[in-house]
Amino acid sequence: MNSLFADLPTTVFETMSRLAREHQAVNLGQGFPDDPGPLDVREKAAEAVLHGWNQYPPMMGVPELRHAVAEHYRLWQGLDLDPDSEVMVTSGATEAIAGALLALIEPGDEVVLFQPLYDAYLPLVQRAGGVPRLVRLVPPHWQITEAALDAAFTPRTRLVLFNNPHNPTGRVFSRPELDLLATYTQRAGAVLVSDEVWEHVVFDGHEPTSVLALPGLRERAVKIGSAGKIFGMTGWKVGFVCAAPGLMKALSKAHQFLTFTTPPALQHAVAYGLGKPQDWFLGTRANLQRSRDRLARGLSEAGFPVLPSSGTYFLNVDLAPLALTETDEEFCRRLVTEYGVAAIPVSAFYAQEAVRSVVRFCFAKTDATLDLALSRLQSAVLRRGHSTINVYT
């Protein structure tokens, strides 16, 4: 067996899900909506299964979807993409990330990552032979600083793996932070692979900037998107890869020998969905923002110090101001076993030097689910003499 995967421990995500089942808990740890997804998009998939082509589609993706991706990003992000040479469809964003790492680095190349980080990143970098160089982000603002980049970038840096909007922190990184990262990437002669799957799950008027729009990065950046996140159907596993033709040549070869292709019915349905009116996308954001605010208000009233969230399905609380005598993981275990609410300790997203006071909740749930969770959390932390604890700004 490969030692990297054979020696990986049981993740805290598996542990919390098991405890949630055992204690019949409200599960705010799992990062997917209660909703089944837009009916018209699902109907398009069903129609394509019954009446469409169910054999291998083109390896790069069906032309209809590749053109829809290019048009969608032209409309929403001002990108000028050639659907024939700069867009590829993958079986989810995780496959796209794995393929990019396999295609773009050699054993021994250094890869800059930002922690807390999506749990698949580090094992995939290591399996591809990369040497991780970690940038540590900390609450409450999770900012990228020049000092942190100075410490992470070296003459051996070949790739940067980035996530914006950022899971688990909920950050939408600012344009000055992105420009700083672009400067370091260009200076190193590296490629910037950007996981932008949450690009439509943004709030408060935020519009994230794609790395492909940053000066100097058009030829040395890879943009990765996800239909599963855009339409709230995480099980569909339809990803988009956008990159200049020189990079796409290698990316497509990695994809060819990983999954080769993606179910054609889902591709046709996603192509339809990407063309939905702008009001549908804006309305989806508004509904999720309302859920975020509902959970934030309830957590604050229960005494939790709530951190800001500008994107993703997630809201974090920082236990540090409460001076509790337990780590975030211990606190999460107590929540699920004693109060019947499952959450995720953010320390699980660090590879080293973990912040051990932040807990992540998923708010992409129905009002009834959120309200039930909040009713159970009313006495989970001390009030400390106040009716509420201020939300960070």
Major sheet attributes? 7 strands, mixed
> Which segments are poorly predicted (pLDDT under 50) over 5 or more consecutive residues?
383-393
Terminal-residue CA separation: 48 Å
What is the general shape?
A: globular
The CATH fourth-level homologous superfamily of the largest domain: Type I PLP-dependent aspartate aminotransferase-like (Major domain)
Strand order of the largest sheet: 2-8-7-6-5-3-4
Q: What is the percentage of strand-forming residues?
A: 5-15%
Number of helices: 14
- Mean pLDDT over the full residue set: 95
Give the tally of structural domains. Answer: 2
CATH-defined topology of the largest domain? Aspartate Aminotransferase, domain 2
Gyration radius, to the nearest Å? 21 Å
- Decide which structural class fits the backbone: alpha/beta
Helix content: 25-40%
Looking at the chains present, what oligomeric state does this protein adopt? Answer: single chain
The secondary-structure element order is HHEHHEHEHEHEHEEHEHHHEHEEEH
The tally of strands reads 12
Which CATH first-tier class of the largest domain would you pick?
Alpha Beta
Q: Which CATH architecture of the largest domain would you pick?
A: 3-Layer(aba) Sandwich
